[in-house]
Structures are given as structure tokens and as C-alpha cells.
Amino acid sequence: MQTVLSIAIDALAYGMVLFVISIGLSVTMGLMRVVNLAHGAFAMIGGYIASYAARDLGIGYGFAVLLAVFGTVIIAVPIERLLYRRIYGAPELTQVLMTIGITFCIIGIANYVFGPTLKTVPLPGELQGSVDLGFRAIAVHRLFAIVCGLAVAAGLWYAIERTAFGVKLRASVDNAAMAAALGVRTEIVYAVSFAVAVGLAAFGGVVGAELLPVEPYYALRYMVTFLVVVSVGGAGSIPGALIACLLLGAIDTTGRYLMPEFGEFFFYLAVIAIICVFPRGLAGRAKG
Amino acid sequence: MTMTTTNEMTAAPPAHRRIANADLIGLAVILLVAAVGYFLFPNNLALLTRIIAAALLVLSLDLVTGYCGVATLGHAALFGAGAYAAGIASAHYGINDPLAMLAFGIVAGAVAGLICGVVILRAHGLPQLVLSIALIHLFHEFANKASSWTGGSDGLSGIAPTALFSLYEFDLWGRTAYVFGVALLVIVFLLLRLIVRSPFGMLCRGIKEDPIRIRSMGASPKIALTKMYVISGAVAGVGGALNAISTQVVGLDSLSFTMSAESLVMLVLGGTGSLFGALTGTVVFMFFEDVVSAANPFHWLTMVGALLIAVVLFAPKGIYGTAAALITRRREAP
Predict the structure, then answer these.
(1) Is B313 inside a domain boundary?
(2) Which domain holds residue A190?
(3) A→B interface, C-beta within 8 Å
(4) What is the average per-residue pLDDT within B83-107?
(5) Cβ contact, residue pair B123, A105, below 8 Å
(6) Which of B257, B224, B258, B244 has its CA nearest to residue B70?
(7) Chain A touched by B327 (CB under 8 Å)
(8) Who contacts A69 (Cβ-Cβ below 8 Å, separation ≥6)?
(9) Shortest CA gap A73–chain B (Å)
(10) DSSP bridge partners of B156
(11) How far apart are CA B117 and CA B78, in angstroms?
């Protein structure tokens, strides 16, 4: 029973961190149809900035998170304008190459600037330790990650379903040309959603630094995981991504707890099985 | 239908001769480059053999990516399967004849190709890409865990190939391995030229252009692509076996994502959809890698990334594709 509970809590926290990082990828992929392999690299940049700010400059955790989110967005927006702009609508192979090139560059630069060691983001006192739920103690950080995930999910749901911007966004996802013809400035929608996506990635990178440790190969190591979430959930679908994150988090964490010697084996096996059964993702819309 | 056949018949002799000429020129260039490499770098034949093994992998990737339009980031699975099969045959079963090891590599590569093909071809677009990445990780994890067979992260050692045809020992300088590699490359190259020009090769190209139309013409895209995947696996298996025979050790890196990504970079650098492009890209990339990564392995990754971005932005057809386009334009100009 104890094991089941701790697996459940860890799986939930891991799934929520995955969700915060990959939801941006899912939205941009559904919107711009760009296979963005560099998304994990942006999460990594966020982690590095937060680590640098909190550990080396001694800035408080909250500020470090803000700094990480905005710093990453500031780094990412020029990349979007200069490089991503050119591959919208390009064949998949081109997009893969371009974004994997960007990932390699970011890894190389991070390795050069910060060194190959693992970076930690020191937690403030309030997030350390554990709370007693009466029957069981839970690490506060895990709870924090879960709450952040839920908050992001709720915030995004509100922004997409209830605001004017959300209407434009959904219109552009469904049919960009038609939305543009009706007066939606799609390039602004693209830019804003890209910035939000990158900001969320950075946020997730910082919040999840305990679970997905920040190091130069972060971007490659978890790239698969993020892409898997999107393709399992179906690009552009928030509920799909949420279900996919919880499912994959559960599979991965359970595998690690019960059969640690097999590492990621079951995770990838599950991924292959899920995609083979649902080639368009769990919540993917059938085309044509 | 009769129209086209008569047209083909009248146009056939010159076209055939031109293609045969291209084959001969390609063959001559390969042999020339191989000979130049042999005499320029007599102390570095191991690197040249590694380049040949990589070239076989890139050729195999070109078959599915360039000719069939399947974007995959997991192609090293086929290469690694060949390498491990050849290595295990030698290290665990005492099958030390290089040609037998090669046969094991080819069969294992083809089987891995069949598995990967069946799985990867189930989806399209992003899911397809994710499947290919998940597959390479699965293969990697499997090889890592089955350490009593594969040596795990220590690598598989104890591979001791006997003399080729019982005549030519695999010497310390790697001369035999190099010549063996060049011979394999030439044979594979000529076979692939035949395959990509055959009706089957044309069918695959047609599938890349328009799968729905091919299906409406009565052919099955899936079966054709799976066949191509098996062929591609056999070619990658040749490369893997060559690598195992020449280096006498098989590491987990031959089943890694990085290897898959790098082979894709080589292919795109040279130009997809052309066997010459695949070879050009491999040679340029591997030389470049040897020079730069010797200086600083960290900068190497940054350089590869920058190179990729530059190729996508400025030379989407790759080195060979751009050069070929320039030459034909020059030829048509006067």
C-alpha cells in the first residue's frame, strides 16, 4: 500500500512536470505544424538560468523562476524569427533537421558555458521537507509540481476556451488561411503562442529540475519523452496531452520502482504499443 | 500504354548507355578516392574503414529516406543489429570466418529492418518519427540489458576474425579490412544502383511522391516500403558487420540515437535521393568530424548543429545535389 501510494504521488508529480513542459510543444505543433525537436532545449535553458540565478547569484526562488521564464523567451523569440519562420510549411525532414541542428547548437553552447556537470536549482525552505497527510508524508516539492501542473492546465484551458485570443488561436489551428482571411493576424497568434510555449517549457524545466536534472544532454535525453507525449496525446489537444502525461508518467515511474534494472525499456515498449494502436494519438482528430 | 513503351524503346539505347556511363564513372570515382585515401593516409586506414562502414549505413538510410520519403531518426538500429550479430557469432559461437560473420550481419540487419519497417510504417508524420526514436532507444536498452550476450556498456569484445579466404590476415594496419571494405562498398553500390533503377525502385519513388495514386494504380505502398526496409536493413547490416570485423569490438554507440541522427546529417549534407550524395556526405562529414572532434569534442556538437542549420537554409539539396544542379545548368546554358 505504501509503495502504491508513493508510486502514485511520484507518477502524478512526474506527469505534471511533463505536462507543463510538453503542452507548449503540443500547442505549437498543432498550430504551426512544426516538428520542434528543440523544445526540450528551451526547458533546459530555463533550468540553467534559474540555477545560475538562484545558486550563483543568490536570488530568491520565485524571482529565479520569473527570470528563467522571461530569459528563455527573450532567447527564443529571435530564434523563432530568424530560423523557425523559414521552415513553416516545409517538409518534415527539413523541420527535423533544422530543429535538431538548433538542439545540437544549444547543447554545445550550454556544455561550453556551464560545463558538463549536473546543475541544481536550490529550493527555498518552504518547498523542502514534507507534509504529513495523516496517513502518509509527502515531499512538498512533489505537491508543488502537481499544483503547478494543475494551475497551468486550468490557466490554458481558460485562455483557450474563454478568451478572445483563444478563439483566434483555435481558428488558426483549424484553418490558418481561413482565419487570416477573416482578419485574424495569424503571425501575431503564432509569435505569442510560441513565446508562451517556450515560457511554459522554461517554467517546467525549473519546476521539474528535481525530477529531470539539468545537464547539457537534457535536451536530447528528454526530447523523446516530450515528443512522445505530444504524439501520444495528439498535437494541439490539452486533454489529450494531460492524459498522455499521466499515463506515461505512471508507466515510467511504475517501471522504475518495480523493475529498476530494466530502466526505460518498458516505457519505450509502451510508447510503441500506444502509437501502433492509436497512430493519430489518443485525442487526435482523424484527417479526411 | 503502347505509346509509352514505344517511346521507351526508341529512347532506350542512349538512356541506358548514359546510366551505364554514370555507373562506371561512379565506380571509378569510388576506386580513385579509395586508392588516394590508401596512399595519403597509410597510418589511418582504421578511420577510412570506419568511413566506409558509415557510408554503408548512410546508403541504407538513403534507401528509406531519400527514395521512400520515410523520415527516421532510428536507423542505427539496423546497423547495430548487424554489428552485434557479426560480433556475437564470432565472440560466442566461434564463427570467425569474415564472410560468415558478414552473412550473419546481413541477415540480422534485414530482420531488424523488417521489424523496424513494420513498426515505423504504421504511422505517418510526427508519430512515425517518435516511433523511430522509441525503437532505437528500445534496441539500445535491450543491448544494454542483455549484457551476457552483448557485453552491455563495456562493449562486446573477443571478436577474432580469421584470415579472409584463409589467405589475407586482418593485420594491425587494417589494410585487409580496408580493401575488404572497399570491395563491399563497390558491390553494394552497384547492386543498389540496379535496385533503385528497377521497376521496384521506381515504385518506391512513386510512393514518396504520391502514395494514394500508387495505391489506386493497384500497388501496395506498405508492402513495397517494407521490402525496401528489409533491403535497407541488409545494407546497414553489411556496414555493421564490417565495423565489427575491422574494429573487433562492438559498442553500445552503434545502437545510439546520436549515431542515427549523425547518419541523417551525413545524408542531408550530401543530398537525399541519390547514392552519390550519400557517399559524398559521409566522406565530407567523417573527415570534418575527425579534424574538429580531435580538437574539441564540445565544439563538435555545436559545429554539427550550425552545419545542419546552414545546409537547411542555404543548400537544401545537399552538396552533391547542388553541384549536380549547377553542372546541368551549365550544360544547358550554351
Answers:
(1) no
(2) 2-277
(3) 29, 35, 83, 86-87, 92-94, 96-98, 100-109, 111-112, 220, 223-224, 227-228, 230-231, 235, 261-265, 268-269, 271-272, 275-276, 279-281
(4) 85
(5) no
(6) B224
(7) no
(8) A46, A199, A202, A203, A206
(9) 21
(10) B250
(11) 10
Entry pTM: 0.84
Length of chain B: 334
Q: How many domains, chain B? A: 1
Domain that includes residue B161, residue range: 16-256
Domain membership of residue A24 (yes or no) is yes
Which chain A residue has the Cα nearest residue B266? A97
Which value does ipTM take for this structure? 0.79
Strands A130-132 and A137-139: antiparallel
Residue stretches of chain A with pLDDT short of 50: 286-288
Domain count, chain A: 1
Q: Does residue B326 fall inside a structural domain?
A: no
Chain A residues inside the 8 Å CB shell of B270: none
CATH of the domain at A63: 1.10.3470
Q: Where are the beta strands (DSSP E) in A130-259?
A: 130-132, 137-139
- In a domain, residue A128? The reply is yes
How far, in Å, are A31, A39, A264, A278 from residue A68 at the CA level? 25, 15, 29, 36
- The answer to whether residue A282 is domain-embedded is no
Cα–Cα distances (Å) from B149 to B88, B89, B146, B236, B301, in that order, read 7, 10, 6, 21, 32
Q: Does any domain span residue A285? A: no
Question: Is pLDDT of B4 > 50?
Answer: no
B44 domain-assigned: yes
**Which residues on A lie below 8 Å from B261 (Cβ)?**
100
Q: Over the stretch B102-133, which tens digit does the pLDDT of each residue have?
A: 888 999 999 999 998 888 888 777 788 888 88
Alpha carbon of B187: minimum distance to chain A alpha carbons (Å): 29
Rounded Cα gap, residues B156 and B137, in angstroms: 18
B65 CB near a chain A CB, below 8 Å? yes
* B178 pLDDT more than 80: yes
Please report residues of B whose CB lies closer than 8 A to that of A265: 138, 141-142, 145
In a domain? residue B317: no
Mean pLDDT, range B306-328, rounded to an integer: 83
Name the residue in chain A with its Cα closest to that of B264: A97
Nearest to A105 among B131, B302, B312 (CB): B302
